[in-house]
């Protein structure tokens, strides 16, 4: 038997992504979200959903760009802080000592210390109710060189991204690899 929880924003895992934007005075801002995911492979696109009341919403609407910054486990405090306070009140990057870097392909900053950064230009946005759903075409993905495997691909166990459990309000790490995709299921 299964327990019904009704219509809720509950799914495991949810990402912990820090969204980078500039305001109209070119001040870098970072906001943590959990509502997001890949939505298209060609062109490569990622979605994020943000409330209209958020400072980041205004920045994205003005610049049609954002970065998706993937914090590692060692930055859990900073990622949490980025979701607690508003960039309209405090410079979050300055407060945490993290470094904003101007993206090469879009008008948005990324976080130097975070192991993975995506530069995205807005190609669509949709009002869904409480949130606006932004579709960003991924213009570039940057990953720290020392976090690549022997084949030169990002290694999730070295990146150590955070995941979020919405109902429990806790952050977790990624577990060990348990199988090779598009391979372990071939036995059927």
UniProtKB/TrEMBL annotation:
Cofactor names: FMN
Cross-referenced Pfam families: Flavin_Reduct
One MF term in the entry's GO annotations: FMN binding
InterPro entries: Flavin_Rdtase-like_dom, Flavoredoxin, Split_barrel_FMN-bd
UniProt keywords, alphabetically: Flavoprotein
Boundaries of every Flavin reductase like domain copy: 10-164
Gene3D superfamilies: Electron Transport, Fmn-binding Protein, Chain A
PANTHER family per the UniProt record, alphabetical: FLAVOREDOXIN (PTHR43567:SF1), FLAVOREDOXIN-RELATED-RELATED (PTHR43567)
Family classification: Belongs to the flavoredoxin family.
Name recorded for this polypeptide: FMN-binding protein
Organism: Desulfonema limicola
Organism phylogeny: Bacteria, Pseudomonadati, Thermodesulfobacteriota, Desulfobacteria, Desulfobacterales
